[in-house]
Write a structure and sequence with these properties.
Helix content: 25-40%
Shape: elongated
Number of helices: 19
Radius of gyration: 25 Å
Strand order of the largest sheet: 3-2-1-4-5-8
Number of strands: 13
Largest sheet: 6 strands, parallel
Structural class: alpha/beta
Strand content: 5-15%
Distance between the termini: 30 Å
Length: 416
C-alpha cells in the first residue's frame, strides 16, 4: 500500500524519506510497539494504527495533561493514521486481512496469545500473507515458565535485575524513562529495517516472522552487570548518580546549590582531574589510585576530596575549569529545565505537530539525515482515518455505514 500523496509531501520537499512507500499495520498499545512504529513513521513509512472502537489504545487515557490528552500517547503516536476495528468480529478480522494484503509490515504487542487467537500466528501469516514482515513484541518470549504472564515496563525491569542496579543499595529504583518499552521498540524497528534492507539487496532470509521480548531486551541491557556477576560472583551495588565500574564518576554539590557531574574514563584523565582541577597532585601520585580498579576500591577517599573542592566553587566555574582540562562534565537538570535547554533551542530541535486537541511541541527524532526533514505528522484521533482507509480497500459509503451500524467500526469522531 503506497503512501498517500499528502503523507509523502509532509516528509519534506524533494525527499519523502527512506521508508516512503512502506506501509505498516499496527496492533499496538502502551509504549513498546508504538515506539517501534513511530520510529518507522519518522523515516517516512505509513503507519495504520488499528484500535478497538471501545476506547482504542488505553495509553490515550493515562493522564490528560496535554490539552486533555495523555503525555505517553502523544509522545509515541505522531505521524500515524487510526482506524477502529472490532477484531472480535469476523468482519473486523476480514478487514484487517485486507489491510495486511496491501501492507509490508505488521507490528503487534497484544496480550499473550491474542495475536494467535486472531489467526495471525507466524504459520497462518506465512500462508495467507507470505511477503508480510510480522513483528510480535511480548513480555518474556516464547517457551519459558513466564511466557504466559503479562509484562509491563516496571515488571520486566524488576524481573531482569535492572531495578537492582538502579538507585542505591538501600533504595532500589526503576529508571525514570520506560527503558524496557523504548529499547524493545527500537530493537523491533531495527529488526524490521534489517529485513527490509536484506530484501532490497536480494538477500535470502529464513522467514518473515520476528519476535522481540522486553525481558530479552533488558537482559541485553544488563550485559555488563550480568557478565560481572557471572565471572566475579558479586552483585554490584547501585550507587545512585555514579558508576560501579569507573571512579571517579559521579555527582557533587557546588557552592551555589547546584549539582555538577564529573567523569573520567581512563588513568590519564584521573591524573588531570586530580592535578589540574582539584589541585591534588598527591592523589595523582598515590599508588592506591593508580588504576581504575584501584580507584573503584578506594572510591570514598576520592569522592571526599572532589566533593570538598566542588563545595568551594560555583557550577559555572567548575565546568569552565573541567572543560579547559579536558574532563567530561555536565550539570544535573530537572525535566522542566531541559525543555528550554540551549542545546535543544539553539539547534532548533523542537517542531510543532497537530493533535486532535490542538498543536503541541514535539522533539525531532534523534537521527539527523542530510537532506531529510522528518514528517512530524499529526497524532491521530481515535478512528479519525477509518472511513478514508476503508474507502482505499474498496468499501463504499453504504458498506461503511453498515459496518458502523453493526459496531465493526466505531462511530465517526468517537471519543471515550
Amino acid at each position: 500500500m503506497a503512501a498517500s500523496p499528502q503523507d509523502t509531501a509532509s516528509s519534506g520537499p524533494g525527499n519523502p524519506g527512506p521508508l516512503a512507500g512502506i506501509t505498516v499495520v499496527a496492533l499496538e498499545q502502551a509504549v513498546s510497539a508504538p515506539m517501534c512504529t513511530r520510529t518507522l513513521a519518522d523515516f517516512g513509512a505509513r503507519v495504520i494504527k488499528v484500535e478497538n472502537p471501545d476506547g482504542g489504545d488505553f495509553a490515550r487515557y493515562y493522564d490528560d495533561v496535554v490539552n486533555g490528552q495523555a503525555a505517553h500517547f502523544v509522545w509515541v503516536n505522531r505521524g500515524k493514521e487510526s482506524i477502529t476495528l472490532d477484531l472480535k468480529s469476523a468482519a473486523g478480522v476480514e478487514i484487517l486481512h485486507r489491510l495486511l494484503s496491501r501492507a509490508d509490515v505488521l507490528v503487534s504487542n497484544l496480550a499473550p496469545g491474542a495475536v494467535a487467537r486472531l489467526g495471525l500466528s507466524p504459520a497462518e501469516l506465512a500462508e495467507r500473507h507470505p511477503d508480510l514482515i510480522s513483528v510480535e513484541i511480548d513480555g518474556f518470549g516464547a517457551g519459558g515458565p513466564l511466557s504466559h504472564k503479562r509484562a509491563y515496563d516496571l515488571l520486566v525491569q524488576a524481573e531482569s535485575g535492572v531495578c537492582a542496579v538502579t538507585g542505591t543499595a538501600d533504595a532500589p529504583a526503576k529508571p525514570g524513562p520506560p527503558v524496557a518499552d523504548v529499547t524493545t521498540g527500537l530493537y523491533a524497528a531495527l529488526s524490521i529495517l534489517a529485513q527490509l534492507c536484506g530484501r532490497g539487496r536480494g538477500a535470502v532470509t529464513s522467514g518473515n516472522s520476528i519476535a522481540v521480548s522486553l525481558f530479552d531486551t533488558m537482559a541485553e541491557m544488563m550485559g555488563y552487570h550480568l557478565t560481572y556477576a557471572r565471572h566475579s560472583g558479586v552483585d554490584l551495588l547501585p550507587l545512585g548518580m555514579s558508576s560501579p565500574a569507573v571512579a571517579p564518576y559521579g555527582a557533587y554539590a557546588t557552592a551555589d546549590g547546584r549539582t555538577v557531574v564529573l567523569g573520567t574514563t581512563n588513568d590519564r584523565e584521573w591524573r588531570r582531574l586530580a592535578t589540574d582541577i582539584i589541585g591534588r597532585p598527591d592523589l595523582a601520585a598515590d599508588e592506591r589510585f593508580r588504576t581504575n580498579p584501584d580507584r573503584v576500591r578506594h572510591r570514598a577517599e576520592i569522592d571526599e576530596a572532589i566533593a570538598a573542592w566542588c563545595l568551594r566553587h560555583d557550577l559555572a566555574q567548575i565546568q569552565k575549569i573541567a572543560d579547559d582540562a579536558g574532563i567530561g562534565n555536565s550539570c544535573y537538570n530537572k525535566p522542566s529545565e531541559v525543555i528550554d535547554h540551549p542545546q535543544l533551542v539553539e539547534r532548533d530541535r523542537w517542531r510543532t505537530i497537530e493533535t486532535p486537541n490542538g498543536p503541541i511541541p514535539s522533539l525531532l527524532p534523534p537521527a539527523v539525515i542530510d537532506g531529510f526533514e522528518p514528517p512530524m505528522g499529526a497524532v491521530p484521533g481515535l478512528g479519525a482515518h477509518t472511513d478514508a482507509i476503508l474507502a482505499e480497500i474498496g468499501c463504499g459509503a453504504g458498506d461503511i455505514a453498515r459496518l458502523r451500524e453493526s459496531g465493526v467500526i466505531g462511530a465517526a469522531g468517537v471519543r471515550r
